[in-house]
Amino acid sequence: MYEVQNSHRDAQPTEGEREIWNQISAVLQDSESILADLQAYKGAGPEIRDAIQNPNDIQLQEKAWNAVCPLVVRLKRFYEFSIRLEKALQSLLESLTCPPYTPTQHLEREQALAKEFAEILHFTLRFDELKMRNPAIQNDFSYYRRTISRNRINNMHLDIENEVNNEMANRMSLFYAEATPMLKTLSNATMHFVSENKTLPIENTTDCLSTMTSVCKVMLETPEYRSRFTSEETLMFCMRVMVGVIILYDHVHPVGAFCKTSKIDMKGCIKVLKEQAPDSVEGLLNALRFTTKHLNDESTSKQIRAMLQ
């Protein structure tokens, strides 16, 4: 994390980190194919529309059904990946917050793990940006659920129902109903981690998150560091990680990221984002507007709210 300006993938794990590092690497290995798959997701809009407009045309019903089924299998793959990501995040949090080291010491000692944490957040924000721009996902899935519940007797469902049964469909439905499902998953995982580890001071987790935020912010606003960013992608990486960590902090910290006592300089972070090309940061500003928990609290200054209007 501290060397992210050179290359965010070059930190090598120490012996003590290797087991967890390998476990997380295995998850991250699949992240690019998940994103490519989501990016290529076109949906079955035309087929669904034809089927709905011609309810008595059996051929059109089957055509829509056959178009939707493979898409639902793909959506299940994304959903199952979110569960793997959740487990990965909890392992990382355990490593990066355990005594006797302070969060800053952890981030310095375990740079390879800190980078994996950053990679997870980077993936999460990219996934959610793509999902937000793709209304077909929810249309396809709700058509699938309506069709299954409407004609249970019809044989054409049996194969897919083994793959996506009712219970799985309910869980997937809750996941895709979120504007930013992956961030929501990670926020819940972080909150769960804090509530499960009652003996661990909450500051260990929130300080780890606020430290990561300030590292990203300093790198984005300091010309000397900025000049080392070799590509637009590295810049986006840093911004996505910063926003992801702010959102986790806001969910876990009792009073959140926006109040005066917060260890995160929200004005500075928003300012850095606002200085970038609007189309590259709109998704990130929306994530701050819609997936944080405390933005609309009384304690949030009017100035910060105005910056996010």
From TrEMBL:
Pfam families hit by this protein: CYRIA-B_Rac1-bd
InterPro entries assigned to the protein according to its UniProt record, in alphabetical order: CYRI, CYRIA/CYRIB_Rac1-bd
Predominant cellular place of this UniProt entry's protein: membrane
Ribosomal protein among keywords: no
Molecular functions per Gene Ontology: small GTPase binding
Subcellular location: Membrane
Superkingdom of origin: Eukaryota
Gene Ontology biological-process entries: regulation of actin filament polymerization
Topology relative to the membrane: Lipid-anchor
Keywords for this protein: Lipoprotein, Membrane
GO cellular component terms, semicolon-separated: membrane
Domain CYRIA/CYRIB Rac1 binding: 9-305
Membrane in keyword set: yes
Family: Belongs to the CYRI family.
Subunit details: Interacts with RAC1 (GTP-bound form preferentially).
Protein name per Swiss-Prot or TrEMBL: Family with sequence similarity 49 member A
Species assigned in the record: Suricata suricatta (Meerkat)
Upper taxonomic lineage: Eukaryota, Metazoa, Chordata, Craniata, Vertebrata
